Input
Amino acid sequence: MSRPAGGHIVNRVLSIRGGAVAALALAMGCGGEGEIQQPTPLYGEIPIEYPLQLWDQDREGETLLRVRVTDTGDVDSIEVVESAGEPAFDSAAVAGARELRFRPARRNGKRIEVWAKVPVHFSKKPRPDTLGGMSSGG
Output
């Protein structure tokens, strides 16, 4: 949490909970030798810091990452596939993706290494898939 000049407390931590799961399904959907059981995130939310300067400027964007999930469920390589157009967004997305942990993908019962695409959305508006526990205020 941070306190901007206006004095209101705001939360600048993003969640890629829904986006990561959907992207993995798309990235793993194309077959190969045997059916692949997709990797699944081990944690519901991964905090990614929204760059403060861009938050204060009301800047938004999306960085599309490609991550390699090892056969132990760690992320060992990260590539920026599509930049948000702001280096600070891309850097924050990569830093957050390093913290991702997965139940490994499997093919024919054996753990395998796979690449998956993960979109990271930087927006001050709540995403529909992150509103579950929030109540509407008026």
